[in-house]
């Protein structure tokens, strides 16, 4: 089955290009690709391996995070091509460089502008999450459904990465924090934060930056498990939409509760 074939490709990339370098990066294997953003030889080698192999599964353009950093025009394939692969070869690179296990390998298949399949592999703990549109979400081969969140905001646990928010928006989030049971910054790795929401460790997550390789996989995993992912104005997420802002929640009631508290 092609779904399992892609899973195998990601596991191979982790085994060959990523795990051998975890806590073992050599001098010169880490570089700054933009202010505050690092890239490693593991990112580049994993992306090359994954992209080459994915084309043998579905012959479609590959929009990889590292390739798009050098050629931003690649993302037009999400709107213009009948199908396109999205690849984040090493999500949470800064964690990886620091020797923290919160990193992941992520892939999504987009058809007609809509995500139809998604994978998140977490090499550090061996977890594999897979979703196919209309067929559900699976964790390590077991079907996953996200249960409803508590109705009381004081019992909700969430994450909000405020790094990319403007000052006014950051103030609103900070003012809302005491209304919740917990509101932290998350792990700075979407490939870990989405599964935490899916698994019930979090009830909602707010993101400001919505790069497609960061969010297309997690959004499909969440929504196929019964969760909700919407822009602050209530519109659905689409990978080719460059607008900032994305609020993910365990269910629609939770989304409706959290949204006014965070956005006023």
Polypeptide structure, described:
The protein is an alpha+beta fold and 264 residues long. The chain folds into 2 domains: 2-144, Fructose-1,6-Bisphosphatase, subunit A, domain 1 (Fructose-1,6-Bisphosphatase, Chain A, domain 1, 2-Layer Sandwich), CATH 3.30.540; 153-263, D-Maltodextrin-Binding Protein, domain 2 (3-Layer(aba) Sandwich), CATH 3.40.190. The chain is built from 9 helices and 14 strands. It has helices spanning 2-18, 41-54, 65-70, 77-80, 93-97, 167-176, 190-199, 212-224, 252-263, and strands spanning 30-34, 37-40, 62-64, 83-91, 104-111, 114-122, 127-132, 136-139, 142-144, 157-160, 182-184, 204-207, 228-230, 246-249. A 7-stranded mixed sheet has the order 3-4-5-6-7-8-9, sandwiched between helices. It has a 5-stranded mixed sheet with strand order 11-10-12-14-13, sandwiched between helices. A two-stranded antiparallel ribbon has the order 1-2. Strand 1 and strand 2 form a beta hairpin. Helix 7 packs parallel to helix 8 (212-224). The longest helix has 17 residues, at 2-18. The chain is globular, with a radius of gyration of 18 Å. The mean pLDDT is 96.
Key descriptive features of the protein:
single chain, 264 residues, alpha+beta, Fructose-1,6-Bisphosphatase, Chain A, domain 1, D-Maltodextrin-Binding Protein, domain 2, 2 domains, seven-stranded mixed sheet, five-stranded mixed sheet, 9 helices, 34% helix, globular
Brief digest:
By secondary structure, the protein is an alpha+beta fold. The chain is built from nine helices and 14 strands. The model has no long low-confidence stretch (mean pLDDT 96).
């Amino acid at each position: 089955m092609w779904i399992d074939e892609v899973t195998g490709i990601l596991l191979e990339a982790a085994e060959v290009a990523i795990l051998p370098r975890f806590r073992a990066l050599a001098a010169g294997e880490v570089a700054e690709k933009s202010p505050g953003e690092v890239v490693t030889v593991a990112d580049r080698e994993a992306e090359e391996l994954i992209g080459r192999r994915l084309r043998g599964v579905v012959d479609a353009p590959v929009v990889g995070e590292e390739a798009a950093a050098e050629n931003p025009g690649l993302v037009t394939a999400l709107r213009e091509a009948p199908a396109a692969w999205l690849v984040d070869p090493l999500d949470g690179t800064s964690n990886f460089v620091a020797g923290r296990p919160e990193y992941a390998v992520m892939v999504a298949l987009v058809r007609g502008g809509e995500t139809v399949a998604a994978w998140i592999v977490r090499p550090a703990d061996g977890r594999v999450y897979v979703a196919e549109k209309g067929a559900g979400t699976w964790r390590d081969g077991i079907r996953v459904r996200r249960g409803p969140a508590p109705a009381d905001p004081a019992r909700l646990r969430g994450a909000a990465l405020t790094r990319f928010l403007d000052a006014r928006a950051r103030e609103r989030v900070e003012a809302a924090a005491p209304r919740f049971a917990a509101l932290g910054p998350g792990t700075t790795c979407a490939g870990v934060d989405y599964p935490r929401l899916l698994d019930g460790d979090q009830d909602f997550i707010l993101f400001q930056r919505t790069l497609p390789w960061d969010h297309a996989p997690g959004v499909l995993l969440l929504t196929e498990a019964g969760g909700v992912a919407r822009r602050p104005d209530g519109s659905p997420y689409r990978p080719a939409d460059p607008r900032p802002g994305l609020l993910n929640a365990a269910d629609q009631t939770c989304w409706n509760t959290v949204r006014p508290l965070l956005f006023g």
